[in-house]
Amino acid sequence: MSNTLPKSIERLIVSLSQLPGIGPKTASRLVFYLIRNNQVDLRGLGEAVTGLKDDLVYCGVCHNIADSDPCVICADKHRQSGMLCVVEEPLDVLALERAGFTGLYHVLGGSISPLEGVGPNELQINSLVERLKANSQIKEVIIATNPDVEGEATAAYLIKLLQNLPVSITRIARGLPMGGDLEYADELTLSRALEGRNPINLNAKV
Residues 179, 184, 188, 190: is their CA dihedral positive or negative? Predict the structure, then answer.
């Protein structure tokens, strides 16, 4: 970092550079944007960052990040209580909410990754089993871990662990995204798309 920069600017650039996806150049652009733009409430921004974790808790039911325990989703009596979607991280909950999922969630807090020292005991897997045993309303467990090596390993572990419980176990479908070209798809994506193919209703009106 250049020693010609004021200390306050240098300190903020270094701090922002520690965030995922933000390198020194992007951090520098953000800092100078904040300096130039009078419309940005820097005091409010600073207070929001400072108090970010103060009012946050982990839901004792689903382990999602929330501002109350239980969280608003677990406390909502209008959710479909028979469906439980198992995800890796809180951001996955946001994605599924945007997609219109109306069931309940269970956040594992990551995925099984031996190389990083993350095993089943480091995740919220035991609490998932206990939750299913204690709640007879749950009829279907939807495994929605990521379609990568760690996510697939986690899904396989969960399927083996839960197969003797009185619930239906399903896995989210994976395949080609809308607007995607076959020539640019990798082999795993294409094989998943083939596995998840659906029958065509020949009597349907076009």
Answer: positive
